[in-house]
Design brief:
Blueprint lengths: L11 E4 L15 E6 L1 H5 L2 H7 L5 E5 L8 H13 L4 E6 L1 H13 L23 E6 L11 E6 L4 E6 L7 E4 L9 H20 L5 H23 L4 H18 L6 H11 L5 H6 L2 H7 L1 H14 L5 H14 L16 H9 L13 H10 L2
Parallel strand pairs: 1-8, 2-3, 2-4, 4-5, 5-8
Antiparallel strand pairs: 6-7
Helix pairs in contact: 3-4, 5-6, 5-7, 6-7, 8-13, 10-12, 13-14
């Protein structure tokens, strides 16, 4: 146990069935931009929320890719500036929420995201526009973090961006929005949340106050994700997975992620794997690797999750992934042996890989990847 830690999570969280139908109670401004992915606009979810805002003028932006580009961000910011948005509502998975975060900042900060992101020379001023995040997947936890991830298409690189201005004012967590998720998305996002939780737990900068939310998140996912996958409208399973995603988000908001996410960046940007699958595919191998410097803590987790050992935990999670049809080997994502050195190099360039409780260098990372090819 650590004798000193800092904890800061300033988001007002409203966890409630159908809370998304009553967002207006939180909004004080007049001009609202709802940012969502194309599917949520086309199926009417975004418009239903917009129509519930009787006192506001509402516009919509939905031109967002699964791994949002800087160009999409600039297009959203252009729309927000045009209507002089007082409030940005992010609706969807991590991509929509991340675009909403930076758009709320760029509404009153001049220039392009390129001016602020990945080597940009400008610094964001404090956000003046209200930001409300409404997750529709149970996985990213983005509604309670100050991190967003974007793809720089000019450089062909996907990287995270961190800012105090990315904390939402309000997170509306309405688990009923997840009832229509396709099973594949339930599986991918659910295991992404598991990765968030375990990476916060074993992190070199782990925070005692976050260990229990992280452990609870993992337990809830382990016990409910297969049921949510097979029975999409099972309310108990959906509530528990949504809670797990929220708890995991709170946990890793204080620590950031580790090697799992570092390696996931090239797997999504270059091999086009979903973010959750790109993270989960290395999860069992990283669990075993974590024994190198966190064996005692990981054994506590294994006991808590009903496993005899850390290796047993790794095998249990791999079996769970197989049960929900997630890839457990890199070749299932199209990765070849000749790709491993490049994936390793890209992963090692991500600062978060150094937070992994094990030696992370070219040899050790390549060895880990070879073990799951």
């Amino acid at each position: 146990m650590k004798n000193k830690f800092d904890y800061f999570m300033p988001v007002h969280v409203c966890f409630e069935a159908d809370a998304s139908k009553r967002i207006g109670r939180f909004i004080t401004g007049k001009n609202v931009l709802i940012i969502s992915d194309p599917f949520l606009y086309q199926n009417g979810t975004a418009e239903r929320i917009g129509q519930s805002l009787k006192e506001q003028d509402v516009r919509y932006f939905y031109h967002i890719e699964p791994n949002p580009s800087c160009e999409s961000v600039d297009a959203a910011a252009k729309e927000a500036r045009l209507i002089k948005a007082d409030c940005i509502i992010g609706l969807g998975g991590g991509s929509a929420l991340d675009v909403a975060k930076i758009t709320a900042c760029l509404t009153t900060n001049e220039g392009s995201i390129y001016d602020y992101y990945a080597g940009g020379e400008r610094t964001l001023k404090s956000r003046e526009t209200m930001l409300i995040c409404v997750p529709t997947t149970a996985g990213t936890g983005s509604e309670v973090t100050n991190v967003a991830v974007f793809t720089n298409q000019k450089a062909g690189v996907k990287m995270p961006m961190v800012s105090r201005s990315f904390w939402a004012d309000v997170a509306i967590v309405d688990y009923k929005l997840t009832f229509t998720l396709p099973p594949a998305v339930t599986a991918s996002t659910g295991m992404d949340a598991f990765c968030h939780a375990i990476e916060a737990y074993w992190n070199r900068e782990s925070v005692d106050i976050c260990d229990m939310p992280a452990m609870d998140a993992m337990k809830l996912i382990k016990e409910n994700i297969e049921l949510a996958y097979k029975e999409p409208e099972n309310e108990t399973a959906r509530v528990n997975i949504m809670k797990a995603s929220l708890f995991a988000g709170i946990a890793f908001s204080q620590t950031r992620t580790t090697g799992i996410h570092a390696i996931s960046f090239p797997l999504t940007s270059e091999f086009h794997a979903s973010h959750g699958a790109a993270c989960a595919v290395t999860l069992p191998a990283f669990i075993k690797k974590s024994k190198e410097e966190a064996e005692e803590k990981m054994q506590i987790l294994a006991d808590y999750l009903g496993c005899e050992s850390v290796d047993d935990l790794s095998e249990t999670i791999e079996k769970l992934m197989t049960a929900i049809n997630l890839p457990t080997r890199l070749h299932q994502l199209g990765v070849k042996a000749s790709d491993l050195e490049h994936i390793t190099e890209v992963g090692l360039n991500a600062a978060i890989i150094r937070l992994t409780p094990a030696t992370m260098n070219k040899d050790t990372v390549c060895e880990l990847l070879e073990s799951i090819l």
